[in-house]
Amino acid sequence: MEKKDQDPESKSAKNISRRGFIRGAGLSTAGSVLLSSNVLAFDYREHPAKGKEFGPGAMTIKMKVNGITKSISVEPRTTLAAALRDHLGLTGTKVVCDRGACSACTVYLDGKPVNSCIMSALDVGDKEVTTIEGIAKNGELHPVQEAFIEHDASQCGYCTPGMVMSCVHLVENNPNPNLEDVKDATRGNLCRCGTYPHVFKATLEAAKKMI
Questions:
Q1: Which one, of 100, 82, 120, lies nearest residue 162 by Cα?
Q2: What is the share, in percent, of the chain residues with pLDDT greater than 90?
Q3: Which residues in the chain are classed under CATH 1.10.150.120?
């Protein structure tokens, strides 16, 4: 039985290469975003960005840290952690991962824990910052700090300030935490030394002393 000649359109479709298909699809997509007036549908000039611009040079801002308002000159790219360490000399706040993954840089912003290494110093505004240096009062360590010493809850020390900040926030907002509460409060704090059991014991002991 004689085979019929294949449809020319079907034959050409089979001969299209992968590169040719992608190129054709791209051209079709590009053409679809053109309006009849030959203006791109997503032309950024139709909707210019709004808001106040900063930089590129340094600018002076005021920041309330540990109860004291200070003026510092920072570039717009400066993180809160860098402002604290490099401009205010508060080196208790540690920068370890520098991407908000380990929580060693934890500070309080209006009483709430934040990762200062991924927060812009300009975004602090009128909020109050509390660092590890502001936890002790009148020359006396916070009960959590004392318990960390008693239970040997710090080893290399890189994670300790952030760990203390997380634990202090817990005991000051939950007067009777259990083990699961402590684990939940420190779930974002990474410790390469693996001193978690000591941290848990120290925090639970501190909570009992604060009742």
A1: 100
A2: 72
A3: 143-210
CA-CA distances (angstroms) from residue 27 to 30, 44, 186? Answer: 5, 21, 52
Q: Do 203 and 177 contact (CB within 8 A), yes or no?
A: yes
What is the tens place of the pLDDT at every residue in 137-165? Answer: 999 999 999 999 999 999 999 999 999 99
DSSP code at position 4: P
How many whole angstroms separate alpha carbon 158 and alpha carbon 104?
Answer: 7
Q: What is the CATH topology of the domain spanning 143-210?
A: DNA polymerase; domain 1 (1.10.150)
Q: How far apart are CA 94 and CA 85, in angstroms?
A: 8
Average of per-residue pLDDT values in the chain: 86
Spatial neighbors of 4 by CB under 8 A, at least 6 apart, are none
pLDDT digits (tens, 9 = 90+) for 31-47: 444 444 454 444 555 56
pLDDT at position 9 over 70: no
Among the listed ranges 2-6, 109-113, 177-181, which one has the minimum average pLDDT value? 2-6
Give the H or E element holding residue 68. strand 68-74
Cβ atoms of 113 and 131 within 8 Å: the answer is no
CA distance 108 to 169: 9
Buried/exposed code over 93-127 (b: 16+ C-beta within 10 A; e: otherwise): bbbbeeeeebbbbbbbbeeebbbbbebebbebeee
